[in-house]
Amino acid sequence: MSAVSRGTWKSNTGFILAAVGGAVGLGNLWGFSYSASQGGGAAFVVLYLFFVLSVGLPVLTAELVIGRHTGQSPIRAMGAIASRWKWLGVVFVAVGFGILSFYSVIMGWTGRMLLDFALGWVPSDTGTYFGQISEGGDAVFAHALGMILTILIIAGGVQHGIERVAVVLMPVLFLLLIGLAIWAATLSGAGAGYGFYLKPDFSAVFRQPTVTGAAGQAFFSLSLGMGAMITYASYLGGKGSIPGKAVAIAGADTLVAFVGGMVTFPIIFHFDLLADVNESTIGALFIAVPRGFLEMSFAGRLVGTFFFLALYIAAITSAISLLEVCTSAFIDSLGWERKKTAWILGILIAIAGMPSALSTEWVGFLFALLGQVFLIFGGLMLALITGYFWSGTALEELRRGFDSAALATLWIWLLRTVVPLALLVVLYFSISQTVIPAAKALFGASS
Ligand code: PHE
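# phenylalanine complex -> structure
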């Protein structure tokens, strides 16, 4: 059977680091700080935590249970639950394909910034500079290069590609972030930055865009609702506590996002950049934060290099998880060979990313549509399927290596009630308030 050639993780730590690598990405270091700055600082953080615990963790657990139980990538995994759910697996693969097409473009911007900071080439007008590198030939080149790196890692396989890269790069990422947070603490604006970040402005919390934003951010950040976690868990086998793994993954992801804020907020306040951050959405951190670094000449060049290196590591370990979802689906469903599959799909994704490399508005639209709405939809479906149609088997699988019957019951109850209700509401608002405006920005209404 194909199980022989599918591959497995070498160690549990390897799995956790790979899964954390998939989850920790641009969403943590770029999206989280931006959303927090718009959503009342700590008020957003509290809301975010609440959402991760009550909705994110149950869905993450469901994905891990599905992946480990079926030992298959999303299409076959959903088909193994019941053949009528196979289409959802197909949607997952398509969403992974689409997300990677624009994600790799943003990764390209970070790579370019990394290179330019290292070489001291970032000009003082970061707004114009960002405009130049984010659209057109430069963006296409950086995007293509990032895709090639991603393909090479996926072609290496589960243990020799994904796990090996994660085991080396994730500790580097953690160290870089801790170092940056310590450096940021020495800035004169640090106090004001922490104040804004950690003092909850509860008037902002109960505004509906903040709530929707926190939910969407949590799903994107935890890589939920598109089968990434199903795929990684399909290489698990064995026993071990799934809730334990889910808590480790969600905990590490949230911690990194939080520490990311401890880096960005002191920078924003030290260099008085809040207005710049508020100005634009997509480019906010790419324009504002470098502006701060440039004011510090050599030290800034060094810190800028580390900052964008951290961002690039975070991005590529997520990019590989996206390509793995697509690749593994073709391997499992069609019996294709891994290397060939990785190259064919990777090149197709690189081509599909061209519109994003030519227009940041296209990035914004795809992010709203695929990175928000489709992930929420996928999470909603997973909760309903696991909670209502598959709860017997799901409970059995969960209990392999996990003792608490009470928590297991609570999990199914959440999947049946709180999770779908919350996701339905969020789905409605994210369609009406993110996708539709983003589509308008892209397709017309130029007035
Ligand atoms: N979680 C990643 C991030 O925060 C993005 C991602 C979403 C990766 C969905 C895989 C699947 O950047």
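# post-check
Residues 22-23, 25-28, 99, 220-221, 223, 226, 228, 318, 321-322 surround phenylalanine (CB under 6 Å).
The CA atoms of residues 24 and 306 lie 17 Å apart.
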